[in-house]
Amino acid sequence: MDRFVIVLAAGQGTRMKSKLYKVLHRVCGKAMVNHVVSQAEKLQPEKIITIVGFGADAVKEELGLKTEYVLQEQQLGTGHAVLQTEKLLAGKKGTTVVLSGDAPLLTSATLEALFADHQENHRSATILTATAPNPSGYGRIIRDELGNVLKIVEQKDATAEEAAVTEINTGTYCFDNEWLFKALSEVRTDNAQGEYYLTDVVEILQAQGEIVGAYKMSNFDESMGVNDRVALAAATKVMQRRINEEHMRNGVTFYDPERTYVEADVKIGADTVIEGGVSLRGTTTIGADCVITAGSDLRDAIIDDQVIVKSSNIEESHVLAGSDIGPYAHLRPASTVGPNVHIGNFVEVKKATIHQGTKVGHLTYVGDATLGENINVGCGTVFVNYDGKNKHHTNVGDNVFIGCNANLVAPLEIAKNSFIAAGSTITNDVPEDALAIARAHQENKLAYAKKLPYHKD
Ligand code: UD1
Ligand code: CA
Predict the structure, then answer these.
(1) Which ligand is nearest to the CA of 12?
(2) Domain for residue 455, yes or no?
(3) CA-CA distance, 221 to 301, in Å (whole number)?
(4) Less CB within 10 Å around the terminal CB: N or C of the chain?
């Protein structure tokens, strides 16, 4: 039996009070609608069609080639939204799943269970329902005394008795595709919101003698629809727990998973320890046997095995095996560090490559530079890379010793095995094996300190 998926994503989402269209709001780093489409892909359907309207271009950019698109020019309701796929789907034999772009927690496992239930019971429509602790805002499932689903009533159309029902419509359905389009043509707008409700299809199918039922999922959390920022935070919490638990099952230790923010596409190797308050974002990949201590924030970073990151920020950079970073270091984009490199406290690195065994221990800025192996960079060194207009590059050869508080004014070539004296401002290239000193000579005025007002005898 062919499967088709329709994802509703044309609404503006006024309750979000946002410039950003609702389905593009991110849950653990990934747009809600992208979570939905990723789960839909696992069902291996013939087609996934996303209904776009508000922010159509932005939604298309987010989802790319993962789906086909149909434009709903005016947002006249969920029934009207589904009807826009008529040209692509009407007349096809198969089962159509309708998903809401604002339900990011739903899993493909639940959708498979919904499919199975729909098929086994030979229904024309099966609604995915759940019992909500607070059903406010959801459509309510109205059943007869035998438990058959009679209709779905929206909050705004519900009587007090109907509003008291806690079984809710998750906004996810399985339909016999041909019956779906037959019923949709009969949906009208005689309701409190003056919209074409997809939910009215239930009553229409009933009236035609078709079998309509509900599959009730046990886990309400998974069905959560996000209409405002409160629900967005709640969904993020659930998704975060799901992501972190998966990493824990794969051998990662978390000291405080409730307070560790790991985005959906992050990868972490076994026996790595992640302390509390860490944020791992974007496409960050962490190897095995690493330690990432409290407060570290990594975005699009690649961290190889056995790396220690102490309370540091790393963006779009690669740290090779055996290196240690921080505390309080900042690796900015396009940096490559290691293997076995030491980056100490209050060191900032930008667009620099630092090779094996080099140590940059304290209070240093390394920008636009290539450092060879086994270099020692003294405390307070500044790679002076910017002349106010352009950035310039510095190369430092293997085994160079850079004394404390040196200024290396780029562009510069500092050849291997050379030595830069502390406090030097280097403006000329330094040859191999040379000692470079560039600072004023010291003069000692004997007994002069005694004449100074604060001198203590
Ligand atoms: C809908 C259901 C409600 C259910 C709830 C679950 C209807 C009438 N109501 O209500 O029974 O409990 O979802 O979360 O279906 N959309 C369009 N085009 C439109 C209108 C909406 O694409 O013209 C999209 C929205 O972008 C959203 C989805 O459809 O992704 C659901 O719309 P929304 O307005 O959030 O419906 P709810 O009021 O939550
Ligand atoms: Ca909704």
Answers:
(1) 1
(2) no
(3) 31
(4) C
